Amino acid sequence: MKSPKVDLANYLVRHPLATPTLVRAGWRLRRQGWWYHAPFFPVAARAYWEFRVATATGDAKVAPRADEMVQAARWSLRQRVGR
User: Is 0.70 topped by the overall pTM?
Assistant: First the structure.
C-alpha cells in the first residue's frame, strides 16, 4: 500500500494543474502564528487535521485518497468564510 504522500505526489504528476488548488487550500488551513512554533512551516495543527479527516471520512486514522483531497480543496476554496 502506498503512503498518502506518495499517492498525492503521483496524482500531482498526472494532474499538475491541481497543485495551486492544494497550495491555496493548505494555506487556509495553516496554524495561526505558525512562525513561532516548530515545525516552522505553515501547516495545519495535527489535532485540527485529524478533526478535518475524521469529519470527512468518519475515522481520523484513515488517509483520504489524492483525488478526495483535491476535491475537498476545491470545495473549501469555493467557500467564502474564514481566512
Answer: yes
